[in-house]
Design a protein that fits this description.
The structure holds two protein chains of two kinds. Chain A has one helix and eight strands, in the order βββαβββββ. Chain A is mainly beta. Chain A is globular, with a radius of gyration of 14 Å. Chain B folds into two domains: 93 residues, Sandwich (Immunoglobulin-like), CATH 2.60.40.10; 340 residues, Alkaline Phosphatase, subunit A. Chain B is built from 14 helices and 27 strands. A ten-stranded mixed beta sheet of chain B has the order 15-16-14-13-17-9-18-26-12-27, with helices on both faces. In chain B, a hairpin with a 7-residue loop joins strand 5 and strand 6. In chain B, helix 2 packs across helix 12 and helix 11 runs antiparallel to helix 12. Chain B is globular and about 80 Å long. Chain B starts with 8 loop residues before the first strand and ends in a 6-residue tail after the last helix. The chains are: A mainly beta, B alpha/beta. Chain B: Its cofactor is Mg(2+); Zn(2+). Chain B: This is Alkaline phosphatase. Chain B: InterPro entries: Alkaline_phosphatase (IPR001952), Alkaline_phosphatase_core_sf (IPR017850). Chain B: Belongs to the alkaline phosphatase family.
């Protein structure tokens, strides 16, 4: 299925202005795209379930699975993807392209308790 | 066939050595969940409540389990001697013997405990070769940690296995009780909550409560990581980072330094790893702590009475990255202090307390880099540890009131087996490996003033072998582009395969893992480790000792048992 991915391109190294001890600062470029349609390329972290409406997008393939191993840790710059419809997720470490509406700000997933700062919602993805 | 009835489990376990006056939780688990009337516990034949001066609680079917629990929390025994604890219910019974020990009068005012996390003999030997040089088999000098008058072989096993982890092993040093993998300051009982297991008091809590001493906890890992956490924590699960931050706040070590700031930040702050809105940076600052986030701020904070240094969101970068390769997170955190800076600042602050101090200093990435099969980074951090030890020795030598101990917490299966020489004929890694006299000596440049060769990618390199590994590609070379990631997640869940990015390096050898398929990294080993020590009390280290003896020697040197 050829899926059109529309939106402003957004890259992992554009997300944050700084990674400080007192917290991270979101970049101006990111904040300018808040609420707008974006496209991001990255890697799907090993998912919790084979089929879901939720996965974590990372800039580099993860060596470990933070969902599975308590001693593994998420990288600082992750983006949480909420799909428009639940879908079969690809294996961990596969490159994907995602498009959807950019959502920014602290939010706790009521189902999993997962806290995120940057999300793409109403999203669709394809292998890239 | 009927199985023999399962006996009760009594915590602290059999052969526990308990410092007179130190607090612990007595717990007895009765299998089969008997009623209180049927469950009996005695200490030396008497009611434990009378011996410990505290009343017991009885929890039938604790946590819904098929057992009942008898508890006396926050107990202590001040009279030294042998104590026999017996438990019985129906035809089931169990007994353990504890030794409650005296310490005599104080011999030392201060203790500095250096922990080289995972530091094995090969790390130490390689650090000596790189930082002192070797000519005709003779070293050009001594490591500070080697040049100490007392030495012992330390066994690191836990209550559940020969090979243990850094939580349990560090907890043995800081509480004097062995426990199980992943546990800090608790025995591993059947409680469901990780925070409810039977506790034993840590040396930080003891010296603050009994003696008003100061406490320092210094590391280059996240401050919540197992070894530093062992100074304050009571949890069955070392990954309870947010609880551990609270435990640091409850104990309030006067000096705390490391990485790991995200667990101090409220969850609404970007970069937080908390699940609540507690802001521990603000809490510590309100409690009088000076916050330092860089080497520059640390230098400016030496006048503070209480110091919280957080220098990285994760682990502080290792010496090889900070000083030479500029990889890891050095671009994000360009002004991180060295362990030597941290020790100097700690001694400045802690030595102002006339009642003395206990300082733990961990070089924690020796272990982490050994897990990732990245020996050069591990050895540069061994040299860094040695530089920090030198500062403590200089401090202690001028005073003769400070016990200095240098000890690993467990080993890694590592060994120096020869040398790789790029000029040897052939294409394969095995062609490049020389053993015995075919290896000769490596050609690392002479070390700089801090003991580090300024180049690790030389043509004749140490061949440093790992005895346990996942599938990976061995390049026989240092990882100049960043810490080695030997394996990555495989196609099937919880399996790991070689990280192919190293497999295309010329000469790389594909190694079939010898660890279980779910291992992504190297593992610890059960080998004994080497302790060296100096100062009053150090003479108690000799021969082979169990890891819990390190606590007992520190407690004895400080004379922590209440005077009879």
């Amino acid at each position: 299925m050829a899926l059109a991915l529309d939106g402003a391109p957004l890259q992992f190294d554009q997300l944050y202005k700084s990674f400080g001890i007192r917290g991270y600062e979101l970049s101006d470029a990111l904040l300018a795209l808040k609420g707008k349609q974006v496209v991001m390329r990255g890697y799907m972290a090993p998912p919790l379930k084979p089929e879901s409406h939720f996965f974590v997008l990372t800039g580099q393939p993860l060596a470990l699975c933070p969902f599975c191993q308590s001693d593994a840790d998420w990288p600082a710059d992750i983006v949480v993807i909420y799909l428009r419809r639940a879908a079969a997720l690809v294996g961990g470490g596969d490159p994907v392209a995602v498009s959807g509406r950019l959502d920014v700000g602290s939010w706790t997933d009521p189902e999993t308790g997962f806290v995120s700062q940057i999300r793409i919602v109403d999203a669709s993805f394809r292998r890239s | 066939m009927t199985l023999p009835a399962q006996a009760q489990t009594i915590y602290p376990l059999n052969r526990a050595e308990i410092l007179a006056g130190a607090k612990f939780d007595l717990k007895v688990e009765f299998p089969g969940a008997p009623e209180q009337a049927a469950a009996k516990v005695t200490i030396n034949g008497q009611d434990p409540a009378a011996v410990l001066g505290k009343s017991a609680t009885f929890v039938p079917r604790e946590d819904g389990g098929d057992y009942s629990a008898y508890w006396i929390r926050d107990a202590n025994i001040t009279k030294p001697g042998k104590y026999t604890i017996e438990a019985s219910a129906g035809d089931r019974k169990a007994s353990v013997i504890w030794e409650v020990y005296d310490t005599g009068a104080p011999k030392a005012k201060n203790v500095i405990l250096f922990v080289g996390d995972g530091m094995s003999v090969a790390h130490r030997t390689a650090a000596r070769i790189l930082s002192k040089g070797m000519v005709e088999g003779r070293y050009g000098g001594e490591l500070a940690m080697d040049d100490m008058p007392h030495m012992a072989l330390v066994s690191t096993a836990g209550t559940d296995s020969i090979v243990t982890d850094s939580a349990n092993s560090a907890s043995s040093y800081t509480t004097g009780h062995k426990s199980c993998v992943n546990a800090l300051g608790v025995y591993c009982a059947r409680n469901k909550s990780t925070l409810d297991h039977p506790k034993v008091e840590t040396i930080s809590e003891i010296v603050k409560r009994m003696r008003g001493m100061s406490v320092g906890v210094v590391t280059n890992t996240e401050i919540e990581d197992a070894t530093p956490a062992s100074m304050v924590a009571h949890t069955r699960r070392r990954s309870d980072y947010n609880d551990i931050v609270k435990m640091f706040f409850d104990v309030q070590p006067d000096v705390m330094m490391g990485g790991g700031s995200p667990n101090f930040l409220p969850k609404s702050t970007a970069g937080s790893k908390r699940g609540d809105e507690d802001n521990y940076l603000s809490k510590f600052e309100a409690a009088g702590y000076k916050l330092a986030t860089t080497k520059t701020e640390l230098a400016a904070a030496s006048g503070a009475n209480k110091l919280l240094g957080l220098f990285n969101t994760g682990n502080v970068d290792g010496a090889l990255d900070r000083f030479f390769l500029k990889k890891g997170t050095v671009d994000k955190f360009p002004d991180q202090p060295d362990l030597t800076d941290q020790v100097r600042a700690s001694l400045d602050i802690l030595s102002r307390n006339d009642k003395g101090f206990v300082l733990m200093v961990e070089s924690g990435r020796i272990d982490k880099y050994s897990h990732s099969l990245d020996w050069e980074r591990a050895v540069y951090d061994t040299i860094m540890l040695d530089n920090a030890v030198k500062i403590a020795k200089d401090f202690a030598s001028a005073r003769n009131d400070t016990l200095v101990i240098v000890v690993p917490d467990h080993a890694h299966p590592v060994a120096i087996i020869g040398g790789y020489d790029d000029n040897r004929p052939g294409q394969l890694l095995r062609d490049k490996l020389g053993v015995y006299n075919a290896a000769g000596f490596p050609n690392y440049p002479a070390p700089n003033a801090d003991g580090y060769p300024d180049k690790v990618d030389v043509s004749r390199r140490i061949a440093f072998a790992f005895g346990a590994f996942p599938d990976y590609c061995d390049t026989g070379r240092p990882y100049l582009e960043g810490e080695n990631v030997p394996a990555v997640a495989g196609a099937s869940k919880e399996t790991f395969v070689a990280n192919e990015k190293y497999c295309t390096v010329p000469g790389a050898a594909r190694r079939t893992g010898n660890l279980p398929f779910d291992a992504a990294q190297g593992v610890h080993s059960g080998d004994d480790v080497i302790l060296t020590a100096m100062g009053p009390g150090a003479e108690q280290f000799r021969g082979r000792v169990d890891n819990i003896r390190v606590f007992r020697v520190m407690a004895t040197a400080l004379g922590l048992a209440p005077t009879q």
